[in-house]
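Anyone else keep sequences and structure tokens together like this?

Example one:
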Amino acid sequence: MLLQAFGAVSGLGVGTQAQFQKAVDCSSGITTFTKSTAIPVDLPCASLIKEDLSFNLDANSLSMFDRTAHLSWLAANEALQQSGLNELNDLGLDRSGIFWGTGFGGSNTLDSAYQEIFLNGKQRARPFTIIGVMANGSAGLLAIQTGFKGPSMGDLLNGMRLIKPMPLERLLEVLNMVFAIGQLLAAEQNLFLMLAQLKRGRL
């Protein structure tokens, strides 16, 4: 048996129906980019999500995970509703897993940490930075929300092949930043696992 369902959110709108209708209307999601950035960028246009989004997530999930993970849940939840997999029994949850592909992962969180440390002179990044930055954050959030207990993983490498290599100086800056926030890793990973277990009722 094959179940196929879709979920989508992009500059075209929220939901698969919105994507399809914009495609039928030959309407583009590309628009003028006027948002101010910490470091000026030459970006005249971009695909922006303009709708006010309701993620239906608790405050902890909204603060810990990157916006990429929030959007992931928005799209995945739509697909779950279509497929009927949102009402699985315990055996079904045990046999269900998640495979998630991403080109970067928590880029918003990484950029914010970079700005706080290197531009604003802060001595440390905000709590939960590692959870927000990690590439499999979306897969983790989906596992928590769905209760799927099978394998949960993310594929970063295939997406990274589309990203141009960065200059050595920039790479060293990023590595220095990762080192600066790396001290949070162990404690936050333990907290992440505890929250996941609490969500599943194991604690």
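And example two:
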Amino acid sequence: MARLVIADASPLIGLAKIGGLVWLKQLFGEVWIPQQVLDEVLPGQGFPEESIIQAAFIDAWLRVPDSIPLTPALPDLDEGESACIRFALGQDRVLYRFQEPWWRICSIVANRISFIWINIRQ
């Protein structure tokens, strides 16, 4: 079974800041992010990490799915986190990268999919 890696904004921004975004490509080949996360990491404000993340997107190893389910509603999470979880719930096997608030959503995801959780703190 193929492994699917989904990233939220915080790990991408943090890794880009320290020059480690390429590690995701080296480790996983491709990483998926919802459009909401892409909008968050590329706000067009000229932050140095934007060009690094943009290069990964142009290089096509940082990918955006065509569609993401609109449910379940996750009102305690921001749009990017919610989209990551909804995308993950529709997949068979996910290696899931997430920042915070993992304690609020771990039980939701654990009950629906097989996954490995990696928490990156800035």
